[in-house]
Design brief:
Elements lengths: L2 H7 L9 H10 L1 E5 L2 E2 H10 L2 H9 L7 H11 L6 E2 L4 H12 L5 H8 L3 E5 H4 L7 H18 L4 H18 L8
Antiparallel strand pairs: 1-4, 2-3
Length: about 180
């Protein structure tokens, strides 16, 4: 049983939801994670926004105060394809800072390049629990209710009766026409 799912279902936003509604909400939930970025994406961004042209111009100008920086950055971003980089590393952030201080890029450019590492993924995939069904939510809720009931001193018979009643209420709430509560 996934502790992440237990923690999620413990949140107040799921308390009044049926098992199916909670499963649907959990399956639809997304999170933004940071990922490595293909270096070609940075080079392509720099090319499209004129940054690469400024770097090339400074690379060939011995009078440019940032010629060495331009040479280093161009060598880095034009390295072989398939290289993945971590945009959160101190050296990468330093490179971005140098690009801004030398006038090759603006802070907005840096923010946009840094955002390339943001990837939106489904929460269930991020915590490796896969799609959830109404049944899996019911099992977790029964476990959570049972643990709460045991702490309160309920007998197993009381716990079973509670879980059965709760399941019937959920069926009624989800529209089972044959169920009368």
């Amino acid at each position: 049983m996934s502790q992440a799912l237990i923690d999620e279902l413990s949140k107040a936003e799921y308390a009044l939801m049926s098992d199916q509604a909670a499963a649907d909400a959990i399956n639809a939930k997304t999170v933004t994670i940071r990922v490595l970025v293909d270096l070609w994406q940075i080079e392509e961004y720099a090319r499209r926004h004129g940054i690469r042209a400024l770097l090339k111009k400074a690379e060939g100008n011995t009078q440019h105060a940032c010629q060495d920086i331009a040479i280093d950055i161009l060598a880095y971003i034009t390295s072989p394809r398939g290289k993945m980089i971590d945009l959160d590393l101190a050296e990468t952030q330093g490179m971005f800072g140098a690009m801004v201080s030398c006038g090759f890029a603006t802070p907005t450019h840096v923010s946009e390049m840094t955002a390339l590492a943001d990837q939106v993924v489904r929460w269930v995939d991020h915590v490796s629990i896969g799609n959830q069904s109404a049944h899996s939510v019911r099992v977790i809720r029964d476990e959570m209710n049972g643990a709460t009931a045991k702490r309160a001193g309920w007998t197993q018979q009381n716990i079973d009766r509670y879980n059965t009643t709760q399941a019937a209420i959920d069926l009624w709430r989800d529209g089972d026409p044959d169920l009368v509560v």
